[in-house]
Design goal:
The protein has 3 helices and 5 strands; from the N terminus they run E-H-E-E-E-H-E-H. The protein has about 110 residues and is of the alpha+beta class. It has one domain: Alpha-Beta Plaits, CATH 3.30.70.
Length: about 110
């Protein structure tokens, strides 16, 4: 069971999670991160590091966000690995509590 990055990450893209990942399973898009399910070793180290609370075990993804399981797998094949923490976007905190952000995802 891999971990999944869900909606809360969109336009926030804090990268604290990347820093603790022992297998470099995160992939970076312009305004979102995903976890490569083939690389994730289910260590859960990233979960408490995410300021947005966007990372879930696949079995625990909220029902209304289940589509992020497939989206992580799809985008992980297209995006490049991110292995070092970067500064969050300047407006990340403004987006932190915004709901229904899928429309803002840049593929």
């Amino acid at each position: 069971m891999a971990y999944v990055v869900a909606e809360s990450c969109i336009r926030c893209k804090y990268t604290d999670c990347v820093e603790v990942c022992p297998v470099d399973c995160f992939r970076e898009g312009e305004n979102f991160l995903v976890i490569d399910p083939d690389e994730c070793i289910d260590c859960a180290l990233c979960v408490p590091e995410c300021p947005a609370g966007a990372i879930y075990a696949a079995d625990d993804v909220p029902e209304d966000q289940k589509m992020y399981i497939a989206l992580n797998a799809e985008l992980a094949r297209l995006w490049k690995p991110i292995v070092e923490k970067k500064d969050a976007p300047a407006d990340a905190d403004e987006w932190l509590n915004v709901k229904d952000k899928l429309q803002y995802l840049k593929r």
